[in-house]
Design a protein that fits this description.
By secondary structure, this protein is an alpha+beta fold. The protein has five helices and nine strands, in the order αααββααβββββββ.
Length: 198
């Protein structure tokens, strides 16, 4: 069944989500979207997000904050937007440059997530701040795998270690300590490659 094209309002919301992720490195909450678009009820934002998900522009984990993920379809849109702070022209140029890189990688790895690395927790694994991580969509990983993990509504890239009944997320940086998993986590995928602009 054919789905209707994205509406102007939905495109504006998608632009806001992309710009928000670019600035804050996490996706916006329902409240963030409501405040920016002055929606009277959270249901208005939820309905638009549901439509964007059904049309293939985003994915998200129900009932959890900041789990909106952009799909390659979203990145194929020619988005010209602004962000609540900063210089819109400079931001648009940055977004366009980043989208072009992501789109090139998506053509090579059509079934993978492409995410940009922020931080230095995995430097001894050769993963540097600003790299693009190529993540295969897998719900489970083995000890020693580097995985994208959602924990406490935050996404992190770490090496997984299973020790008996315990699970640890290991950084590859001698100045950082291992994280013992004590709450529910979601494995978003396994690292299968790194791309770096030279």
């Amino acid at each position: 069944m054919l789905q209707r094209a994205i509406t102007k309002k939905q495109k504006r919301i998608l632009e806001f989500i992309i710009n928000y992720i670019h600035k804050y490195k996490v996706s916006p909450t329902i409240r963030d979207i409501c405040e920016y678009f002055k929606f009277a009820s959270p249901k208005s934002a939820q309905d638009h997000l549901l439509s964007l998900e059904k049309k293939g522009y985003i994915t998200k984990i129900p009932n959890r904050k900041r789990t909106i993920t952009l799909t390659s379809k979203a990145l194929n849109l020619k988005l010209l937007g602004t962000i609540p702070a900063g210089k819109p022209v400079e931001l648009a140029e940055l977004l366009q440059s980043e989208f072009e890189i992501i789109l090139r990688l998506k053509k090579k790895y059509p079934d993978a997530y492409i995410v940009r690395v922020h931080g230095e927790s995995m430097i001894e694994a050769g993963i540097l701040d600003g790299d693009y991580a190529i993540i295969s969509k897998e719900a489970s990983v083995q000890t020693g795998d580097i995985a994208a993990v959602l924990m406490d509504n935050k996404v992190t890239l770490k090496k997984v270690k299973k020790a008996g009944e315990k699970l640890y997320l290991l950084p590859a940086n001698p100045y950082l300590k291992p994280i013992e998993v004590t709450s529910e986590i979601f494995i978003l995928g396994k690292l299968i490659g790194i791309y770096r602009e030279i």
